Amino acid sequence: MRIMGIDVSPDLLNRWRNIFVFPDEPVFFTETSLELGKDLQPQPRTRRGDLNYADAYQTYHVGAHASHLACCLPEAIRHHAHHNKIMQVQHELGRGQIYTLAWVEQLFGSLPAPLIQDVFETSQGKHVALRHDAWHNLTPEEQNIWMSACIEQDRESCLSSTLPEALWEKIALHCGPHVRALAGTFSAESGPNCLATTLAPLLHGQAEVSEVQNTWLHPEPFLSGLHAAGFHPTETPPEFPDPCSVLVFLDPKGNLQHACLYLAEGLVLNKDAQGWFTPRQVRTLDSILKSWLHPGWTLQAYRKAERA
Q1: What does each C-alpha distance from 195 to 116, 246, 258, 297 come to in angstroms?
Q2: Strand order of the sheet with strand 43-44?
């Protein structure tokens, strides 16, 4: 299957099917809505450590005013006396795995039968909650269509497969042999982020490259890794970088928020976020600057002065 211009293997699709929806669904409550779900025994909100779970339900979009959380199996929430009101709260809070009925019907032409039981009314019209049992009652083809639509929504295609061989040879000459193998790939699960994708191809041994590319790398070890690889800040204007330059995006407080690797001829290797659904892409530098160089942010380039 091809998603965003990237070939995705059946094994990887199977892995994604298992982390797209989880058996227990997070149900959030604010102080004013807590009474609706008191029988679900919501507890003061704590963070669940599984990044795949957080991405499945986009729990990071739910504000701190949602002070309580219950984790519910499908039947417990599906047949709850206040189901519609509780799900309205989830929708208002921005929790994931809630879709407009119109979106699902447009995707498939009609609503797949396993989802009929999970349609609910909100003040903004009919929506569908995607739940674990219903998800696994869809056919693999229907699951592939759903995942592909979610992955591709509002994202640019990867340019890896469109580059001529001569350009790949130029990139390898400047950036080393690991970029091509990394570009145009998805991770099996959530965690690997932009910093890992930027640093990994600059390393030498394949074992070290593989370890770093699959890591959620924090700014301090990223900058230390750059320094160890011989990269230092350059005075070259970062909007016009030299080949094999690392571009670092800093917020107004000077905090490192994003990084990518400039390859050559206006192209970069980039991963927008730590989610499994954000690939390691070849994109244009212009598109990255439009996406990441926000007002008040600064761009710093790092360059290796000499390469063996």
Answers
A1: 42, 10, 7, 17
A2: 25-29, 68-72, 43-44
